[in-house]
Structures are given as structure tokens and as C-alpha cells.
Amino acid sequence: MATDFRIKRIYDLPSAVDGYRMLVDRLWPRGVTKADARIDRWAKELAPSTELRKWFHEDATRHGEFATRYAAELEDRRDEIDQLLKTIDNPTITLLTATKEPAAGHVPILEGFLRRS
């Protein structure tokens, strides 16, 4: 069964087409209650390490190097990530983030990795 991955901001309203809603940020988003978030899982382990996240936030022009380092972190956790995906019985997984511009952050890198898994 092919999985359809989507990216959405946690601040956007939940939708019936979201499928399995997974928050993929290491930090809980400001101003969002757990009830309002309506997530199925908070997958902190899929987010960049704290050290990498802080390094990237110091200088957003490092996105290319950030992508390489984050992909390496994901690869190091491949078995754990594969096990996680096996527990999800839904053809649609929505990756949720608090990032203002999701396309400029870690979620597209994660989505690409998950699609290849």
C-alpha cells in the first residue's frame, strides 16, 4: 500500500483528509493545546537533533548543509523509523509542523526520506 504524505502547519484546522496526523517538531508549538492539535502521534524522534536545529537557526543560509546533516541523522535511525511506519495503518500521513514556512525547514527533507523508506 502506497502512503500519501502531506505537509501542514499545526495551526491550520484539522481536516478529515489529513489521515494520520503526526507532529514532527521537537518542541511543542506555542499557543496550541493538545486537544486542539488533534494529533495521533508526537514523533519528536523524527525531528532534527537539538544541536542541529540550533545550528541551522543561527544561519538559515546553511540549508544545504542542514539538509545533508539531517538526512544523515534520519539514516542513522532508519530501523526505528521503519518500525514506526509499520505501526501506522492509514494510507495518508500528514506531517505537522509549527514552522512558518514549512518548505524552508526540515519537513520536506523528512517527507522525501519517508517516501523512499
Structural class: alpha/beta
Biggest sheet features: 4 strands, parallel
Instruction: Note the overall shape.
Output: globular
In angstroms, what separates the terminal alpha carbons? 13 Å
Q: Helix and strand string, N-terminal first?
A: EEHEHHHEH
Radius of gyration: 14 Å
The strands making up the biggest β-sheet line up spatially as 1-4-2-3
Count of spatially separate domains: 1
Helix run count:
5
Describe the protein in words.
By secondary structure, the chain is α/β, with parallel strands linked by helices. It has one domain (4-116). 39% of the residues lie in helices and 15% in strands. The chain has 5 helices and 4 strands; from the N terminus they run E-E-H-E-H-H-H-E-H. A 4-stranded parallel beta sheet has the order 1-4-2-3, covered by helices on one side. The mean pLDDT is 95.
Could you give a quick summary of the protein structure above?
Helices cover 39% and strands 15% of the residues. It has 117 residues and is of the alpha/beta class. The model has no long low-confidence stretch (mean pLDDT 95).
Question: What's the layout of helices and strands?
Answer:
Blueprint: E1 4-9, E2 20-23, H1 34-37, E3 41-42, H2 50-58, H3 63-76, H4 78-86, E4 92-97, H5 107-116
Parallel strand pairs: 1-4, 2-3, 2-4
Output the keywords:
117 residues, 5 helices, globular
